[in-house]
Protein 1
Amino acid sequence: MHPKERRLGATRRDFLMRSGGAALALSGAGSFLAACSNSTTTGGGATSGGNPNANNPLGLPLARPNVPVTIPLYEQPIASGMKPETGGDFTIFNYPDYIDPAVMKAFGKKYGVTVKVTPFDDINSGITKLASGTVQPDVTEMTPDNIARVVAAKLIKPLNLDYIPNLQKNVWPSLVDPFYDKGSHYSVPYTVYTTGILYRTDFVKEDIPSLTPNPWDIFWQAQAYKGKTALLSEVRETIAMALLHRGDKDINTEDPAKINQAVKDLQELYNICNVKVGDLQYSTVAERKAYLNQAWSGDAISGYLFYADKESKQALRFWNPGNGNGPIQNDMWSICSTTKKPVLAHLWLNWILDNTQGYNNFLNYNGYQPPLTEVDPGQLVKKGILPETLSDTVLTAADLGPTSLQEMTLTTQGQQLWQNGYSQFLSGA
Amino acid sequence: MYPRWLWPAFALPGVVWLLILFVLPFYAVVGVAFGSVDPILLTAVPAWNPAQWNFGWVTQVLTELQPGGIYWDVFVRTLEYVLLSLAGCVLIGYPVAYYISRHASRTKSLLLILLVLPFWISYLMRMLAWINLLSPGGYAERFLSATHINDLLFHLGVVSDPNNYLGGESFTVIIALIYGYIPYFILPLYASLDRIDRSHLEAARDLGASPWRAFLHVTLPLSRTGLLGGAVLIVLPMFGDYYTPNIVSGAPTTSMIGNQIDLYFHGGPQPTIGAAITILLSLFLVLLMGYYMWTIHRASRDLPA
Amino acid sequence: MSQAVATGRTTTQEFSTWRRLRGWVGNPWGKPRFLVVITWTYIVWSIAPVLVAIQFSFNDSRSLTVWHGFTTKWYTSTSPAINSVFHDPGLRGALQQSMKLAFLDVVIATPIGVLLALGLARWRGRGSGGANFLMLFPLVTPEIVMGVSLLLLFSHLLTVVPFGTPAQVLGHVTFSISYVVVIVRGRLFSIGRSYEEAAADLGAAPAVALYRVLFPLLLPAIVASAAIVFAISIDDFVISQWLSNGANTTTVPMTIYNATRATPQPSTDGIATVIMVITLAAVIGGVLVFRFFTRGEGGRGSAIDDVAGFGI
């Protein structure tokens, strides 16, 4: 679910839980949280079915591409027209190596601050650290499935969009006013990526995009690529892929029967292709360690740009399932409640949506594209940055919308169900 | 000559350290395993008071630890890997330790240095070295192909693909485990073999025992503590391994119990299950350790050496 | 064997091979060619892969399997396209973090371990048995169990300890103390108490006997255990990983692990080589010091025996 984690390699650690931090967050979360804080999960695993009426910690429905949610303001954003703060440090809370140092340096130079990165291993441990107060950054990376609980714990501040004109000006319309945060009260988008199939034509003979009924089926026909086939080692992505393979597009389901079937399907892959799991596809595919992969579009691009040799560049292909057929996710930026430079923090959010900065960050460093109208697959091919064969990896505004599939927040029981399903798949039996 | 309080006082810092940073942490694991999860932050909320323990997580793990359950299958595989690796370590390690302790008088120092050397080289570096060798085109891969050992392994059913050792083969994982852990096995074994007094053997021979019988009835029993010590030093840590299969395979079909623990601590709403598996694994290992202690105790009573 | 088949002497050859084999295994004074072969095969098997890894850290190509000629660029290049060991911020940072942890581990674990060894060897009161027993467990506890338990300790009980270097150091010291104890206690038993008693008979105060007599006698074991602590700290992967705090506290084994799961490069071999050279230098230094102090004591007191002797 979080491709940034690949930058660290495989050392993700979702869990740095501090009870002190939890208490702090809860006490700060206001009265509407009181009910939740009493109802801690008490084990025994998830047995109940999906709950379409489930609520997030704010008492709002769980956001879905077709169920937009407006997160109310718990306080007024800062007033318009103030001057940015200068001097001292400006701290960015982010995945390691997930933003071009040149982009940060230029920002610091323009506003007279020293830009620093405090890295986290993954978004969950990042949120825990924010809650515990062990870090006090100015801005933070965020993801749509976490935003409601982060607002519930008052870890991020509401935005004043007057400071962020680039949002209206440069960003895809579907993310100016996204379903998970209508009105962009708390976030602006950062990168966008879809999950597809990354493969090498010098080894994989099938024409994957034209497979019927479903290109995902290739994994169940991969006998020839035994030991060279890999899935993402992500609870949500792996099981969602198996659901899609059956033509089930409800990738936020909490129906145990569906999850069980998906896991059974995944277990068939042991014998078919002795499937591997991992998050490092951008590298393994470029180095011929794996021929056939479930992978993120950003992996295809960074694999091509930063890892592949000449031969691999010609052989790499990515199948993009397209709107409504494959999971599509995006990352965001938000302003931390701990910031002492709120105006400058707004300007950072604007900075990252600047066409030049966003473009450079994408192609010089990150490989994960910003949702900027400026980034156009046709143009990238024309300029010779990406080959025609990989133009499919670059998403456009049309890939998002009410019909798109996004792995979004589940209830706690739903998350248990999915995790236990993945555990069963990982058991290899 | 020394004041009586001196030695306990010397021991105090170390004992306190181990109590706080070795024993107390287990209580933290217990608290989490019997606790609950915060619904918003998805963090564990430990239950420190046994009266408030929630047995749901441990029960869930125990249910899956029965034949047919998720953890049962992984545990059985882990057990297989550990036992096969131990067998490999004994088959390779015993002759080597025996030879160096008994025979190589002139080259003994050199051999000892070479024997100890891998002990000082990082485990991860030695794994990395094997990855390089076993990759397609690597020296070991080419050697096995040229000698047709790869075909032999394939026909014996040891590997499922004669040209892709890193494609998720149990064989590769076991070889890697042997390679990684054997230095820790050989050294204590060597030490115990080296300690055996030659006069015992001479006596056995003088009394008419054949070389085989002398080995079976004198050398082997006298090296038993070393064998057991070496076995404990590698078997217990191997039960918690997860990185070796990750490095040389990466396939679910070669995952070990440690991979499950790793999973539950990497995000998601159930660090409690990770803690519960950790507790049960520790209990199992304590039983093994207890058995070892009991054997050693009995051995020292039977054989006052 | 195949030659024997070709020359038609199969049966006698096999028969005598079997007999000789039995003889080699069974007769400790016979010519043990079978054992020679196994031993040297094992030694080549255990060391050759590492030598190959070192070789490929000097490969003039990104390949780790095909040799393209000699270069030192994976160590020294300043080109941004090459993540050289000494100039890539990630690799250099990992090297520094590993050295920092190992240094702090040695400085903290050695004195605590030496005192504990003395205490455990001579304290005969209540609780000494339990302490002796407790000390053994860190030697055999799987690292993931220790990693999980320390993670939860620092998350829920000792929340004052931040993850990253402080937590990592505490973790390293915890698994190092027992090694120091085993080595120093072994040495204590081998020197016995006669020197101290003689000193006391000559009128030395306890503090003097301790400091002037026992300490110098223990010094070689202290040096040896410091070398071992250094080595096991550098070697540690699991504890460092579970207690790390993101990229800033990545150690060399973590770097190697990450690279190995993706695609290792010659610079990965390079950083592994550097850390190996540093460890071996520390160990050889330790052995030399040990030898210097124990010269004239006869064969038994070699560092190797002490190392080998930690089989509980």
Protein 2
Amino acid sequence: MNGSRLKFVLGGVVIVGALVWLGFVGYQESKAYYVTVEEFSAMQGELYGKTVKVAGDIVEGSIDRSRTPMEFVISTRGKSLRVRYVGTDVIPDTFKDGSQAVVEGSVTPDGVFQARHVEAKCASKYEAEYEQRGK
Amino acid sequence: MSEFGDFCLLLALVLAVYGLVASLLGAVWKQHRIVRSAEHAALAACASITLATASMLYLLITSDFSVSHVAIATNRDLPVFYKIAALWGAHDGSMLLWVFVTSIFSGVVIYQNRFRYRDLMPYVVAVLMLNLVFFLSLNLFLSNPFNQLVEVSANGAMQKYIPADGRGLNPLLQYWAMVIHPPILYLGFIGFVVPFAFATAALITRQRGDSWIRTTRRWTLLTWLFLGAGLILGAKWAYVVLGWGGYWGWDPVENSSLMPWLIGTAFLHSVVIQERKGMLKVWNMILVLMTYLLGVFGTFITRSGVVNSVHAFADSSLGKYFLLYMAIVAAGSLYLIMGRLPYLKSERSLDSVLSRESAFLFNNLILVVACFAVFWGTMFPVLSEWLRGSKITVGPPFFNSVNIPIGLFLLFLAGVGPLFAWRKTSIESLKRAFFWPGILAAISCAALLVAGMRNSYAVVCLALCVFVAVTILEEFIKGAGMRVKNMGENFAVAVARLTLKNKRRYGGYIVHFGVVLLFVGLTGNAFNREVSQMMAEGDELRIGDYTLKLTGYKEVDTPNYIYGVTTLDAYKNGKFLRTMKPEKRLYKAGEQQTTTEVSLYSTPKEDLYTVFNGISSDGRQYEIKAHVNPLVFWVWFGAAVMVFGTLVILLPDRKGAFTTPQISLGRSVYFEESMKV
């Protein structure tokens, strides 16, 4: 290995090392467990106070916009979770009865999940219906 | 018609399989006629796929709801323009578009080279057909858009089912940028199959030189252009349609198109080193392989539902086939590269860290690290589940904390690259070259600090932008100045001629200048502001220098959707600016989806971005959200400059034009002969 090659490799190691460190800091700052409502209720003790992403279907008729902050219920496989949206971002248009939602936040002592962030995906129930009818 | 389309796809599959097998056999047996017949079969497969696509368009336009894709992606009242766009409005049809684009690319390559590269072409055809066969099989057997709807009647017999109306195109997709975004992105995803095919053919036929790179240079660049344009259109769509006030959210689907772009960018730079210095041959092979695989991987992420994303298509069963295909391609290519290492020896080694080669190497290293970080962040939920059993996601802070420094370093390299000479740069010449860019960057840095800017990344970024812009201007002034002196041209003519004579070099500078403008735009993110407020008629909302006064609300019915629109009078520093009308729409077809229509006032300094978010339960108050996003204009403008620069490089050469020797910065004098595209 000649001198300039060595210098290049050293420079590269320093740069990559710095980036790995930055990545680790960013990871610590933004990591969140990703669970379904069912898994969440099974491991609630462990996840208490931590930032968690919980996925579930929005229960029909549960979206209560009359309260501020707004509340709704998500569920999977019979387990349900009451969510209070305390974030400032716009609620996506895909957020409505029956959609699949992912809420990010943490659980409070009263058992209501404080969501700082909500994502929603269109329920593909029509597609599913067609697919069942399809061959 | 659906039977016809189905048949065309099947026929195309048979032809493509024949093309794959025959081109390989023809090459092994050295039978030119068999290779020819393989090429003809491949072209016929492309024609057949074109017919299939045409018949799908016919079904969509005539609203034949017996076909599942038509029923899922359109409804009767949809405008014809969107009925055509609905080809890629749902999963199955978008796979057909994918296959169609792939076949067009393959067909063009085969036709273009019908008299050239006869030793390479059989293998090129084989790789192209392998790629086509894979996607065509998925399309035909697992996500066939021509499937008909059937229902089970009371006595258990299956019968045709034709719904009265379709479910309608997802309203979020009913926007011009979204209509052209998927096809353009697909061109970018797929196009890398061409350089990959030539690279593989060069490996198989044990070519020593870099002719595969020269041959596919235009393809690579064009594909890179499409990928970049697709990315920026997607960002534009997110900004204007999704209504959350930003244009990039590190969503898995966004990331999956960014990754091949990053590696493609690395590839574009590192081939220059191979062409000029005969270095990095193995590296380039790996980069072209990675770019192709990341294109396939992008499709995989979007289709398989493996990573949760807001706009990923619903889960489908395609995932495992994608993984298998990628594993086979990767293993095959790596095996080939290992077997051909003696042919891929570097002709030279690195002379100095302060050289242009080294700037290129650092550029490559950093781009690959950026891609790796994006990959890691995107796939982290999947990886952590494999390793530890629990899904862990990472958010934008992870991506930003790695990629912002990377972006700044790349910007720095774009500035110093041209200042370094090839091989070795003397300190003396560096001092001279850094003088003006350095001084001006330092002055702008000081000016920003005095003006009160305290975000260190933003200050560094803007100062670097000045630095790079000055180096680029200096290059143009120097080159054109020489022409003015030697040939007596006026300055503007000299700049134009200079650029056209060395399209690759000066076109490249134009692209870099676009990157500078883009970075100026990205910096604005550090200063975004937003205010959300419930407003009754007559209420005012203040944000920055702006005041918004709510003056009215009405609801209107159209065939496709109903909309509610609020009227806001916008004032800047007390002076009336304009009326803004953010809307909320409720689409009638399908699932009664609502969409948000942002009202936007864009200036080079900042965007005023208003969203109508909903009505309070008593119906008297309207939720309005306003953002002031500085400098966003420069993101779009910078991207446009990048496209322009790339088009300059892509301009065809004049027949018989020869390039003149140029004097580069630093001491080395080199011939621009190899810059010829």
Protein 3
Amino acid sequence: MPMSLPMRSTLKEFALPVFAIAAALLLFGVLVAFAGVDPVEVWATLFKGAFGDWFSWQNTLQRAAPLMLTALCVALPARAGLIVIGGEGALVLGGLACAALAHAVPLPGNAVGTAIVCIAGALAGALWIVLAGWLRQYRGINETISSLLLAYIAIGIFKHLVEGPLRDPASLNKPSTYALNDGLLIGGIGGSDVHWGLVLGVVACLGLGWWLRATASGFSVRVVGGNPRTAQLVGLPATRLILGSCALGGACAGLAGAVEVAAVHTNANASLIAGYGYAGILVSFIARHNPVAIVPVAILFGGFGAAGSLLQRRLGLPDASVLVLQGIAFVLILASEGLRMVDWKALRARLFRASGSPA
Amino acid sequence: MTADQWIALVAGIVGGALRVGAPFLFVSLGECLTEKSGRINLGLEGVLVLSAMAAFGGAYLTDSAWLGVLIGAMAGAVLALLHGLLCSLDRVNDVATGIALMLLGTGLAFYLGKPLIQPQAPQIPAIPLGFWSDNTVVRSALQLNALVPIGIALAVLLWWGFARTRAGLLVRMAGDSAQATRALGYSVSGLRIAATTAGGFIAGLGGASLTLFYPGSWNEGISSGQGLIAVALVIFARWSPLRCVGAAFLFGGAGAIGPALQSIGIGWGYHLFNTVPYVLTLVILVLTCKPGSAAIGSPGELSSTRN
């Protein structure tokens, strides 16, 4: 059946990553077969651990929430033409700001107080990523490098404060800040383990996706990122738009840190440095920096993460096996990006001609 | 502080600089070679961890530290080769690929290295640099990793190679102008893949020195991000292999200030001292970069120094 051109390209858009993930699962199966484990059983366990029942879904969604927000920290600057990889720094500072404010200032123990600590986290993250954008716009320093350096500095500050001035003396083995008051904590949705951070993540993805697509300022950001010359010619305020998208992205990552503190850890401690910032980079690249596409990608990779402990318990595989699976999947999906532009018809024609011609 | 404390502090920092700086030296040389060809490899973190595991496993199985070193370096080269190949595809971003390989390399290392956490492997011999002193603290601090002289020789070799040899010139050309390289009939991708792979081999030596000298065992927390720091180191050294040596030991020394102070009873600011290298790199960038132009000394094709 002949397909219209846009339909075919949409199909390609979905088919390539799906094929890449299937290939990753296949390769992973081969790898575990070497360890003497039945690949089919691994695939079944993987599915069960990620999406098999309500318990697994809760675990998956709990991991997907921060991934969505840290991916936005890459996606928004990327749409303005910047590759920022320092989301981890914004996340830990966001968590720190949340915990520090809750300890320093008596806040109302209700939703208002929760909103205030979340905003504090978002502000801290926004400032940190804006700093990287500012260094680029005004000092000519590449934002990829500076955001990476800033992430390490942020983690140093975080550890210094958590183990020093902000430490709760009662936390002996694992240095932590004072815990948030119960009233400030973010609870589960309808009594489940899935906390409201997931809603924040989804709303942020959909809202920012709409902003990029449908508003004048969002469109301007895309012009600045897509074609800086045009942006200059039509007189767009490039610096302001770039710093704005950095601020929004950083705010998302900072919010992720604040939500992790308020919903999962109840205080700021080293568990917050769990690599969500780095995983978010890959989620965003796989979603091709499209905020709406980040939602399913984050859920998928949250699922892989959630399945890890089940693989370990049921089949005796090392807990690092999901890390391997994620690594293979990321590598293959990124590589499939290189095949996107291949003209399959011409390639097939050439191959057939080559094999048909006499040697 | 008493004189003994001062000596202990200085010996601690110098010894720490040599111990902690050794992996820095190799990853920075590897990254320098890679970036000279016009590509950035953020995946050296994965290379470092994978090669650390492979070196330890190799030394454990063959009962020879040096065979372990070789196996580690080979493992690093294979992962870097994958990076080189992937980045040669159209529209594949080297920053994202690097992060993906960081994940894959550490994942593979943890997965395959699970049985290696308990056993002991033969270690790389130490050169007793503190032979002149009677002080045991000084003596134990100045046990030099036998790989360090090799690394320094490698730095000189790279410096000489970039300046004087045909291969070095070709790598630099691929890094400075892809068009000129193509015009002269060389394959840009081929040169970059070769340089990236060789860079992975060198970085793999750093991994070997982690598990076979200091700290000298395999565990999952073996690297604290040294592979990612390599990128900062190379900027700090302004893409010169010789300056990489100085930068690596400076970073190592800065990282050793915290533990050295802690050993004489000053615990304050441990984590802040660890951030000194990053702050220094950022300051250097602020001082040397100008809006609208690349960092001084950087290869022209490098995406991470252009705006």
Protein 4
Amino acid sequence: MTDATAGRFSLPQLNKLARFTFVDVILWCLRIGVIIVVVGGTIGTLIKGRYAFAQWFDLFMFGLTIGSVYALIALGYTMVYGVLRLINFAHGDIMMTGAFSGYFIANAFDRSGFLNSSPILAFLGVLVVAIICSTVIAVLTERFAYRPFRHVRGFAPLICAIGVSFFLEQTFRGFFGPSVRSYPDPKWQATPISFFGLNIPSVDVVVIISAIVAMLVLYVIVQRTKMGTAMRAVSEDTDAAALMGIDVDKVVVFTFALGGAMAGIAGVFYAFVFKQVYFYMGFTPGIKAFGAAVLGGIGSIPGAMIGGFFLGLVESVGPALFLDGIGIPAPYQLRDLIAFTLLIMVLIFRPHGILGERMAKKRA
Amino acid sequence: MTVATAAAGAGKHVHRRPPLQRAVIVGVVLGVVSIYIAAVGILLQMHGRAVIVDILTLGQEALLAVALGAGAYVARSERSLGPASIMPHSALAGAIAGACLAVLVLATDALDLRSMFIALSPQLVDMLTFGFDDVWIGLSILVASGAVIGILGALLSMAPRPVQKPVMVGLAAVTFFGVFQELIQIMMQFGDFIGAIRETLYDWEGLTLEGAIIIFVIAAVCSVLWTRFRSRPGAAVAPTPQQARAAKIAKIVIGVLLVVLFPVVAGSYIGQVLMLVGLYILMGMGLNLEVGLAGLLDLGFVAFFAVGAYATALLTADSPHALASLGYWEAMPIAVACSVVVGVLFGIPVLGVRGDYLAVATMGLGEIVRVIVLSDAAAPLLAGAQGILQIPKPFIGSLELSDPVELFFLTLACAAVAAYFAWRLETSRLGRAWMAVRDDEDVAQALGINLVKVKLLAYGLGAAFAGLAGSIFAVMLTSVYPSSFQLLVSINVLALIIVGGMGSLPGVIVGSLALVGLPELLREFGENRYLFYGAALIVMMRIRPEGLWPSATRRRELRAAAEGVDPAVEPATTSLDEIAAPDAQQPGQ
């Protein structure tokens, strides 16, 4: 009897146990540790009750706002990765170029009074200029830095991408100086919008809504247009797509242009939210957005959107919810810690992301 | 370098275009390049450094090089036309490059670009118009000199090789002696005879015209003699093994003597620069074990450096945060051991992550370390942003190593020991296992290599080198701040091993000298060094992926690849590739 049960259970389980090395032990400790921090911190915070509902709501809205920016950036990563299998390390810096060009236009509008006299037109003007600038730069980087590495595998493309990132940052530093420039403050951003007695900063509303609109437009382009279909075909199988008569070069340029446009929009919104532009601003959001893209399942467009929003929420609510409860002083300094931990946990434990596996099953 | 690639890029496009059009394109491309270096601020910085006092600055020389390059490139690609019709084309290319800059100057005033681009200062306009008050006169001179220099470039490119080479060597020598005049003058302060030479070549501001001519002639003559000597049939006889061995030993002895004596002669500033170079060599050798040998692209390398520095600080400093007050020699091994432990701990979670994902994951880990060190949460232990101060200098007996040159000798000794270890590791069983893992992880595992052990050893040993560097860094500054441990350090180290040649020990030294030493000597450009790093990474990956001084294995592999397969395949890809991205990477939206 005992033999029978042992026989019934042991084969798979004992085998598994035998292969359980100290590395697995440490990885499990890591998982359990993170879970303990999250759960314990949440309980602790809720017991302490230091935050009112309005504060949670503020954090939540801020999370959605910054999350929509991450989602926009993550789209560029995910599309380029889908087509080229390349981590476009410089993508965050392409966002920075959008923010900078938007800043110069907004500044000019501010000086002429146009920014406050017709806010909607000014807003669109800033967006258009930022989109054009970052699209052009994205396409140029593809042409001069990435295309020669199209068929090179290994480190070379990634190292080249790191080089491009530095080159862009330092070029902008050389052009416009190392100082942090403050973004002009249009009047409409000063008055919050009331919503069931809760005040939401109008920036948040505008950013979230416009980001969702931009993502919908992108989704329609990718799903409905001929170029979008070609893009999906190339990301499915480059060689087969080429055999079907798709001009892969054109598709790659198109992908970079789309990603660049989204990054340009993201740059303007990021500058709206944080009210400053400087040459190094693209780096951290770029890395985080890459984490968002992986979290959602790299190569998947809806995944990038979900990952972006999720990351934004965790990063915004997390310090108060998880870290305050376990008595860490000044938890907001550790915002980036939460984002990077999430990134690493995803890379280690679930490199195919949230939507990745389902996609894989569908294809199989 | 930028010039060369831009021209090459243009060359690809204009393959079958008529010569005139081609000349225009070359001119425009090089013009855009010069507009870029002007707008990014490098040109003016270069203008601040004289090559020949009151006659030629480095900035002017850069523009000269652009125009010369335009002329030479056109002349080379139109060789079939014959000299008479090459000249106008070369002149045109040079003139157009000059005209692009002229347009920049005009646009700066007309469109008020200055409010955006901080580098377009009145000094830049002054430089480009040669100081003439009337902009138009200055700009016409600019365009005309572009044309003339373009012709010179064409002449130089068409000249027979025995003429071409000495001229180039001479120009390079003049540039070298002009740009580094300060250092060379410091070194020439010994003895009457050398002092007399110094006074003929230099005045107190820099190289004089006579000095430049003398240096040019000497360098050109040396170059001619060298060519003669090399091409003499008698010199080609192979030396006997004993001779070769003796020559090798002599070379090593001379090299060691040079390295040891150079900072003593050159003073404490050079000592400091060389010390920094030494630290980066240490870190480079560590990262080389990880990236070059084991193929683990680690962008969080700075964390180990930080651990070494903080461990040293906590163990020795005279501050309230200190845990103990050991001497440096006790603290250093403990610091290195701490880095090894952190390296292994750092490696465990990312064992299963491969390729590009590994790069991002390690970078995230590195950033986490930095965020924690900076935070208030860890401030009671690590002092937060204020850093830990008052770290004592090391003592040998009663001698305090406080002078940069003395500390340089400490670094040199550590680097020599570390280099010996790295060299032995390379050819050891472990080193070969690393290379197997680098080339194909799955096959390596199938051959019985314990991936976990081998990879963790790579992280741990790599971290040991960085920890040692960090420990020396702490006593060099006598204080540690979190701001010293930015991601930029990791990128610096990565850049230097790539420029030097991945997996190659001499490459690490060459890379650190080029990427750490050179920007330190050309101080004005210090702020632009990361621009050069970025450009260097891109350019190296494109034109010389094996690095400046590739390892012997790598060279062999590349040669085999170049001979074996069709030329369309990039030779860069043969050995470091095949690091498959994580298993689940499906496209599909």
